[in-house]
Write a structure and sequence with these properties.
The chain is of the alpha/beta class. 32% of the residues lie in helices and 28% in strands. It has two domains: 2-214, P-loop containing nucleotide triphosphate hydrolases (Rossmann fold, 3-Layer(aba) Sandwich), CATH 3.40.50.300; 218-287, Alpha-Beta Plaits (2-Layer Sandwich). The protein is built from eleven helices and 14 strands. One of its GO terms (molecular function) is ATP hydrolysis activity.
Length: 298
């Protein structure tokens, strides 16, 4: 279990993450998302004990992680730019990590290496970008950590390998009761993978709850009206991600269907259809009202 208690991390005068609280239970796959610079990587490195918190603390299984080597031997951080020893092979890197992680499994190493179709005797510097990522995942999973921290784990993987990795992570979290935290920009991959979601905006948690709670907090609708209803008229109702479609309008909003009918019926609502809301739509709602300066580019 990972617990954040009023966690704050700064770089000089810059606050990377501020006053974060939350608990991630054993067996949970937790998705961590945010725009570039939001503080995702900083949070992962602080959970791993690489960085020391400036305020608050990180507890892993009830103990402070920072400068706790015993706890760190059960935590694996797979960074976006994982380091491999120069000229090393995957087999040589396995020997390196085997000496640090007491729960290392040679069986897991061999099986996942085979699943990813990697040559353990080949030099890693000859691997492609996607193969580098797979090599890192092999080492991370073979270490059998109780806390697995992944920064852009799906980056560079083809569709087949992304699906394979998602299946492996689900199996690992379930079988080992491990905490798996996945920071990613690939929201479509996370949507069918994670149990809980943390969205960092302006260095604090904008949302930190289960996927089911996310879906309860907002709903997506498609609505049709008479010919006189315009996008501008609906815009006055403060609906999120409001868009004109061929046969009506789509939007996100709070409240149940009865409450939506109460708001829209006076405008001559003829059809109201509830639709699945995607994680990408929920995430992009944060940028509502922020316009990009997309003029005079060239």
């Amino acid at each position: 279990m990972v617990t954040l208690e009023h966690l704050t991390k700064k770089y000089a005068d810059f606050t990377a993450v501020k006053n974060l609280d939350g608990t991630i239970e054993d067996g949970c796959i937790y998705g961590l998302v945010g725009f570039n610079g939001a503080g995702k990587t900083t949070l992962l490195k602080t959970i791993a004990g690489v960085y020391r918190a400036d305020a608050g603390r990180v507890l892993v299984n009830g103990e402070n992680i920072y400068e706790n080597e015993r706890l760190k031997s059960g935590v694996f951080l797979l960074s976006d730019d994982m380091y491999f020893l120069p000229q090393s092979t995957l087999k040589e890197m396995a020997k390196f990590y085997r000496g640090y992680y007491p729960a290392w499994s040679e069986k897991t190493f061999e099986k996942i290496t085979a699943l990813f179709e990697l040559d353990p005797a080949a030099r890693i510097n000859g691997y492609s970008k996607g193969m580098h990522r797979q090599a890192g995942m092999v080492l991370a999973l073979a270490a059998h950590p109780h806390t697995l921290l992944l920064d852009e784990a799906f980056d560079g993987l083809d569709l087949a390998k992304r699906r394979l990795l998602a299946r492996i992570l689900k199996e690992y979290a379930r079988e080992k009761g491990a905490v798996v935290i996945v920071a990613s920009h690939n929201l479509r991959e996370l949507e069918n993978l994670v149990d809980h979601l943390g969205i960092i905006k302006d260095h604090v948690f904008y949302f930190n709850d289960s996927i089911e709670a996310m879906k309860r907090s907002r709903s997506k609708y498609r609505a049709q009206f008479g010919p006189d209803v315009t996008l501008e008229a609906l815009g006055a109702l403060h609906l999120s991600l409001l868009a004109k479609e061929d046969d009506g309008f789509s939007f996100l909003c709070e409240g149940n269907e009865a409450a939506v009918h109460k708001t829209l019926d006076p405008l001559g609502l003829t059809v109201l259809e509830r639709m699945p809301m995607t994680l990408e739509e929920f995430f992009m709602e944060q940028r509502e009202g922020q316009e990009d300066a997309f003029t005079d580019l060239f």
